């Protein structure tokens, strides 16, 4: 090998090594980062109340009180988006007393917490189908969204009468209407287009989904959006979930390697 060729080969090797080193640094940086978007299935309120010999609604009230502490801890752990599952499209199957109690809790929660959430800089959004919700609740939801629209410290999304399948079905219906009206061609319907019709169209996909209370199911929550999310199923019942445990889960996410279907390099 001539000295020039040796030099050239060495350069190429150096570049290849530097590239590899850079990738490793990038990957390490990605792993060091906590989740930007955390979604939580707040489960276990009923069991928490039963353990105390109290009615299930007592557990829901205790659960509602946990929300503020977790929301306010988000900036400390680098979470910019928090999405919480408050009521699913399947929850209507509960007793009339529990459903009515939950609806009344949501109205009271919004009325009572609006000022604190706004003061904290939370931008609140609601996802889910509003058709079955009562007009008073819808008005409170709209007003809270409007009131907090300028906030930037944390994006809090509350899933209320939300179901992942229902959301995809509603999105598909709207897409079909666009196609039928000639505003969209069937060829344009793909993985980029469909999410624009989902309730979450302004949100990034969740990085981490937490479910409390020991159940290892996703129960129709953010089905499309969580395709590559990491999951944590923890034993703690929601009313006992603390900001310390939340911080630990976010920190342990930072140690995971997400490959989005690619091969480890
Ligand atoms: C699941 O626990 C919880 C719910 C269906 C309601 C979630 C609501 C809250 C945490 C309170 C309100 C939230 C806001 C944002 C105001 P479960 O009743 O299924 O518990 P179980 O599995 O122990 O019966």
Mind explaining what this structure looks like?
The chain is of the alpha/beta class and 265 residues long. It has a single domain, classed as Decaprenyl diphosphate synthase-like (Undecaprenyl pyrophosphate synthetase, 3-Layer(aba) Sandwich), CATH 3.40.1180. It has 7 helices and 6 strands. It has helices spanning 3-32, 45-51, 56-73, 96-120, 135-147, 164-180, 243-253; strands spanning 37-41, 81-88, 122-127, 154-162, 208-211, 230-233. Strands 3-4-2-1-5-6 form a 6-stranded parallel β-sheet, sandwiched between helices. β3, α5 and β4 (154-162) form a beta-alpha-beta unit. α2 (45-51) packs across α3 (56-73) and α3 packs parallel to α4 (96-120). The chain is globular. Bound molecules: farnesyl diphosphate. Farnesyl diphosphate (FPP) binds next to α2, α3, β2 and α4.
Shape designation: globular
Assign the structural class, choosing from mainly alpha, mainly beta, alpha/beta, alpha+beta, or little secondary structure.
alpha/beta
Approximately what portion of the residues adopt beta-strand conformation?
5-15%
Give the H and E element order: HEHHEHEHEHEEH
Instruction: Specify the CATH homologous superfamily.
Output: Decaprenyl diphosphate synthase-like
Work out the count of structural domains.
1
Number of beta strands: 6
Q: Walk across the major sheet and give the strand order.
A: 3-4-2-1-5-6
Stretches with pLDDT under 50, minimum 5 residues: 1-31
Largest sheet: 6 strands, parallel
Helix percent reads 40-55%
- CATH class category name: Alpha Beta
List the bound ligands: farnesyl diphosphate
Total helical segments? 7
Q: What is the CATH fold-level name?
A: Undecaprenyl pyrophosphate synthetase
What's the gyration radius in Å? 23 Å
Q: What distance separates the N and C termini? A: 31 Å
Mean pLDDT: 89
Q: What is the CATH architecture descriptor?
A: 3-Layer(aba) Sandwich
Query: What's the oligomerization state?
Result: single chain
